[in-house]
Amino acid sequence: MKRAKFDLFMSLSRQRSVQVLILLGLSYILLVGLEVPFVFRNGFSLVSQDGFGTGQFSKSFVLDSEEELEEKEAPNRPLDVPLLVPSQSKPERKIREIKSPLSSLVFDGSYVNMTSNDGFSGILKSAKEAFEVGKTFWKELELHKKEVGLVESNKTEECPHSISMSGSDFLGKGRMVVLPCGLTLGSHITVVGRPKRAHREHDPKISLLKEGQFLMVSQFMMELQGLKTVDGEDPPRILHFNPRLKGDWSGKPVIEQNTCYRMQWGTAQRCDGWRSRDDEETVDGQVKCETWIRDNDTTQSEQSKASWWLNRLVGRKKKVDFDWPFPFSEDRLFVLTLSAGLEGYHVNVDGRHVTSFPYRIGFALEDATGLSLNGDIDVDSVFAASLPTSHPSFAPQRHLDMSNRWKAPPFLDRPVDLFIGILSAGNHFAERMAIRRSWMQHQLIKSSNVVARFFVALHARKDINVELKKEAEFFGDIVIVPFMDNYDLVVMKTVAICEYGVHVAFAKNIMKCDDDTFVRVDAVIKEINKIPENRSLYIGNINYYHKPLRNGKWAVTYEEWPEEDYPPYANGPGYIISSAIANFIFSEFDKHKLKLFKMEDVSMGMWVEKFNSSSRPVQYVHSLKFSQAGCIDDYYTAHYQSPRQMICMWNKLQQLGQPQCCNMR
Question: Which spans are transmembrane here (predicted)?
């Protein structure tokens, strides 16, 4: 009996073994025939020695995100790879580390000694002095101890709630009232003054006259200015209020209002005695322009005023239309109140609303840190009230967002398609931060296919240099050119851009722009790609046959430029050159053969012309879309953009997918 049970058990065991063997055989045939890999949780799979079947283990290359997918190159299939252990990381791109923010550009005295006594020698001497001073400044920065703590500029300001000033004090302070913390909603400024009598002018700016003629003019300007926005530059006019009693080109008394940013005036709002249309937008419910008697008939106005008061006293219910005169008269006292509303500024004169001016993109109330009154006016007193008592410091910390997300991507160990050098000044903290938060966030820059860097010279103030160095070390996107900044030496920054673009970035093309220029990076790349790769290029808004100005602020002497015409040159706010041209420029500079001219964009035109005549031909490409005077539709670059406009334009580009302006003008 026991023997029979044992034989039955063995028979069942053999059957199960046969079944298991058959199952294993079928599995083997399935795996070998169909080449199905085993995939494990740790990311390994079976890979054959020929790269396709079963065999040794290889770690699969898994991209963690879409961003990595766009930036990383596809790996090659492994051939005869050994067993990889899980601790080994994914293959990464090689990164080049740039340790110092200091430019390697060097300017020594031999450059000056080797140059003849022509019109270019003056700028060379200035450059020599500026580099010597800059060398001293940089040594001081290197020795600066971190234990010093926060610099003086970090101190918070305590601002008065109100300010009052007599006419004599106003004159003694340069006809300027300083508003330390700017304005806030509800702030108001009252001016008591008296327009002067009209006087003769042979060259009025508000009218055109023939030679020898004169015009009787009486006008004054009240301006809210951004005194602390940018040191060393003309302050922006946040509000320009200009009553013209006599002398306007229209022949009528008018009030003109406007804004101005970096010497670029916006579109004026003129009030000439006609009330704004009913369908025109209002400002806090107020019309932009009120009506007044256009012929300034004071006799009629006095009769109308008397009739108005009489009808009011007798209780007459019928509405009486009353025509007010122009709110300002020669040698007659007035009381003007400027108030800050929710949507704009409002001006009342002698208790009556006169004009309202809507806020324009690019400025905030806190930017209005000064009130000036100039022209044909005697000021009796100025009062400012409901002012903000606290304000973020005007130090760099007010503007800089020290977040890792704004840091520059590292250089990769390969050439870049385009290097963008951005000219900036040491104290332009807000401008640089706005660019970091706007067009420098473009995917072409984030992926390091395009590289952008700010080129900044040293400032005369040590505290600014200290903060600049901290900013450069944190963000990694600033190249400090070691000379003391000077407008006539901007050309040295351009040379530094050429040197950096060729020898550090290994760029195929180099672009130069300013820190108030918004750049559509993808549009610029498309414009470059239209040119064959074997051609040298010079792309921008190119000027042909321009003549030097011999008078005025931008005057050029015959010693500086003896010729009647400039060579063809692209406007400075945005242009592109090929790497061959940039290499030629720095090579000439290194040999002390490069002529330097104080106008940076003209200098570039001069250098390109020399390259064009001595080397292979250059393809000049002119486009008005490299806008010189502001923003235009479908721009490639837009100049004179404030930090707030930069952010606005970037938001529009991201949300709408179209290049649209954020005009404050």
Answer: 20-40
